[in-house]
Automatic annotation (TrEMBL):
It comes from the Bacteria. It catalyses: dTDP-beta-L-rhamnose + NADP(+) = dTDP-4-dehydro-beta-L-rhamnose + NADPH + H(+). It is an enzyme of class 1 (oxidoreductase). This is dTDP-4-dehydrorhamnose reductase. NCBIfam families: rmlD (TIGR01214).
């Protein structure tokens, strides 16, 4: 079987750039950025895709800031629900497979065991509601689509929570992070490897699938883990301790956040035939690559 031709949307974001970096050396890949495809203008989608040849569409685009979504709900609905639906319709007509990236924010965050793909979704903010609407619209338009739910991304190409906390710790020992919000930090690099395996070896897998590393963390424990690794790597951080604070203390946030969104990766591990490594191991690998390049 020839290698699939891959079209990546959202290639200027952290995950999109990671996907492009991963796939482009060994696959025929192309990208569409905001200049060619504005996700707030779904009526332009068909024309933007018309001249593109692809077998798999990886959609890592959308409006991802919960606070922006909260104050701009109509824009968020266009970007996160309407345009993905049109993309899925185009894929269905072409016989192409769509991998649509979604989020742990489709869940309510109420106290719960580890969340499976079958658990009830009940988002608490506009971002989560529009992403859930996007999931449903994509699967209705293209039942063979794969909806990849991800959480707390980190990796090369875009600074995330561990990068930011390390940069602050190089300047000050006065650090704080939320202790009562928990999920699974997830490596963009691991997501890329999983997606490749799913595309090549599991072409019939569809519906929601949780793509996240193993283990559980709060923003607080994630921050302290990053600082401990940074200290071990010889970075002159001023502390490895972070003050724990409640999410409710962040009064500047415009959108409510779900507190508990730890997703199960058991289905993913079963498909890939391997245990999914911990977020800590993935974080350590990333920071070693970043701060101790060969």
């Amino acid at each position: 079987m020839p290698a699939p031709r891959i079209l990546i949307l959202g290639a200027t974001g952290g995950l999109g750039r990671a996907l492009q970096s991963h796939f482009s050396p060994r696959f025929q890949t192309s990208t569409l950025g905001r200049a060619e495809l504005d996700f707030e203008k779904p009526d332009t989608v068909s024309a933007a895709l018309a001249g593109r040849d692809f077998d798999v569409l990886l959609n890592a685009a959308g409006m991802t800031s919960p606070d922006v979504c909260e104050v701009e709900p109509q824009r968020a609905f266009l970007a996160n629900a309407v345009t993905p639906q049109v993309l899925a319709e185009c894929c269905q007509k072409r016989g192409a497979r769509m991998v649509h990236f979604s989020t742990d924010y489709v869940f309510s965050g109420e106290p719960h065991d580890v969340l499976t793909e079958q658990d009830e979704t009940l988002p608490v903010n506009v971002y989560g509601r529009t992403k859930l609407a996007g999931e449903q619209a994509v699967l209705q338009a293209s039942p063979r689509a794969l909806v990849a739910r991800v959480s707390w991304l980190f990796g090369h190409f875009k600074a995330s929570h561990p990068d930011n906390i390390i940069q602050k710790a190089l300047q000050t020992d006065d650090l704080a992070a939320v202790v009562d919000k928990v999920s699974a930090p997830t490596s963009n690099a691991d997501i890329c490897r999983w997606v490749e395996q799913l595309i090549i070896s599991h072409p019939d897998v569809s519906g929601p699938l949780h793509l996240c590393n193993s283990g559980i963390a709060s923003w607080h424990s994630w921050a302290e883990a990053a600082l401990e690794i940074a200290h071990r790597l010889g970075l002159p951080v001023k502390t490895t301790r972070v003050q724990p604070i409640p999410l409710a203390s962040l009064t500047q946030l415009k959108a409510p956040r779900p507190l508990m969104t730890l997703m199960s990766n058991q289905k993913l591990g079963g498909l890939l035939g391997a245990e999914i490594r911990s977020w800590y191991d993935a974080l350590e690998e990333y920071l070693v690559e970043k701060y101790q390049p060969k």
